[in-house]
Structures are given as structure tokens and as C-alpha cells.
Amino acid sequence: MKKLRIGITIGLFHEAETLWNNGIKQNAVFLAEALKNCPNVESVVLVNTTHVAITKQLPWDLERWPTVTFNDAKDNVDVLIELGGQIDGNATDYLKQRGARLISYCCGFEYVHTMESILFNRPSFGENLFVNQRYDDIWMIPQVANISAPYFEVMRRQTAQVVPFIWSPIFLNARAASLPHSGEYQPKAGPRRLSVMEPNINVVKFCLYPAMIAEMAYRERPDDIELLQVTNSQHFATGCKEFIALMNQLDIVRNHKAVFLGRFDTPTFLAERTDIIVSHQWENPLNYFYLEVCWQGYPLIHNATLCTDLGYYYRDNNVGEGAKRVVEAIDQHDAQLTQYRSRQRAAISRFLPDDVELVKGYTALLNALNEKPLR
């Protein structure tokens, strides 16, 4: 079988755009790394779909991850994976006439985003909506399947299938290299700093339940908790009366043991400002943040069902159980740190781009794609 030349779309906003703060672009790079390990792949390039020029200002290795414009890629790919930038109808026609395949790679909670854009007047596409119905395949990462698969399938008129989730510590390691101990967790005497780092931009990851878990742990062990830090929440704490009123019901807030902060990058915050991460998700049971925290050996209190073997897992919305896991981390984490970090990295290895089963999965997906009739 002919080896495939593959393009993966990204959407650049400026010529020196970082990869660190953009999960979609990291997803594209991780996918590229995995596909390069597939025996039926000849080459992989990142394909920019915006008008931003591609220059040496881009802060990633352009030899390792070649990045080209759509015009430069359109005659040189056998498969275009639409991930971080959408192509239009004319570009789709051109690829189809060449016999190229087009895949929609879905790694966002599009049903939630669409629902919120309509309900809360947050326009995301307006009158310029283009729903491409000529994909040869829809690939979706497992954590978005439950809530968004029907939305993908009805609107795009194609069956969606779950594909292996991919992550790599490459960007984490680069960001943490200059930090003390490479940003890895270090044992600490005395009371612990708890942190909640939910994005707070939609309903899937919001800070209220983690704050309640911290409160329950504080009520049980007040002398063992130094501080609760809630990032990405400063705007709520200064401008949202409902949030302020709710937080003021908590002992940890009333006793001036809580602060509400802005945005931070994960590796630096972990290394400099916290001891335990408390998290909660609703229809987001696997994401990069969990893997970053656990890879570095930090205790992660979480309810993510697709990685129950990581961190300190509690079920569903059970804040009491979550609080017990916080106390467990306070009492036991430092004593078993070396074993914990080794277990975390061994468990995370199933998501790495060179994992044998993961590579087999993508190899099979590409083989099956080739056997389909063109749409």
C-alpha cells in the first residue's frame, strides 16, 4: 500500500504564536508525532488555514514539525486532517478532485460550545456558518464522544468514531526545564496549599465543586490547610454578586484562607505556588491538565472517569469523597512520592505518541480510510 502524505490543519493568529497556551495546536503536534510512527505514513505537515505568514518567528522546531500554507499543501497531501483550522467548500472541492481524503478530527466540546453560544448570546460563527458534509471520516477523542457524537454525525452526515487520545510531555518538559527540580513535586512540611485551576469558561470545568471539596477538607483538618487558591476566578470574585455570596458561605473564605486569582501557566504555578490540585469535570473526563499535574508528581484530586488510575480519584459529584482524598494526600503523598510519580508516568504512557497500541490504532484507522469510497 502506498504510504500516505498527511496534513493537519492549524489556525495561526500571529507569526510568533506560542503552542503552550493553545491546547488545539498542541493536539495537532501530538497527532503529528503519533502519525509519524505509523508504518503507512510517509510524511506529516502542519497546514495553516489563516492568512498569517509562516516565518522563523514561530517558536517551534519547523524541521521536526514542518508548517506550510494550505496553498503549499493542497497538491502534496493524500489526507488532510481538519483539526485546528477549517477549510471552505472550494478547498474541499479541490482536494476531492485530486482524490485526497478529508478527516474531521474533533477534540472540542462543540455541542456545549454551540449550546452556550445560542443560550447566552456568545456568537461563535454567526452568519458565516459552514458545515462541511463531505468528510471521509470523523475522528473524535474519547472525552467528547458522549455529549458531542450525535451533534457531529447529524450535522456532518458521517459516522463518527472514537480514536486514541494522545499526549506528550514535550512542551511541559520544555516549559519546566528552567524551574527548580524541573518543576516536579517536592515534599513539604507543614500545612498544604490547595489549588483549583479550572478554566471557568464553560460548564464542563468550573471551580465551584472543587472549592466545596476544599471547604469540606478544611472543616475536617483546618490546621493542615494553609490556603485555597482559585485561579481563573478573579473576575468572579470582583464582579459577580452570586459568586461572592456563595463563596462567603464557606469557612475557608470567611477565615481568610482563600484567594481568587487570575490566569497562570501550569508548570510555573505548580512549581512555585501549590501542593495539591483539586479538580472537577462534567463531560470532560480526560484532558492535558490532569496529565501535566500527574506527570510532575503532584497529587490530583479528580473525578475524571477516563483516567481513574491517575491521581486521587473520587466518584461523580461526591464532594465528601473528594475531601477524603484531599486528606489522604495530605497524610500520605510525601511518603510515597517516588512510587507515585513512577505509577503516574507508567499509566500515562498509554497516551504517548510512541505507544505501540496507540500507533496500531491510528495505522488501522488510516488503512480503513483508504478502503472507503470517496465522498
UniProtKB/TrEMBL annotation:
Domain of life of the native organism: Bacteria
InterPro entries found in the cross-reference section: DUF2827 (IPR021234)
Pfam family, one: DUF2827
Protein name: DUF2827 domain-containing protein
Protein's organism: Caballeronia temeraria
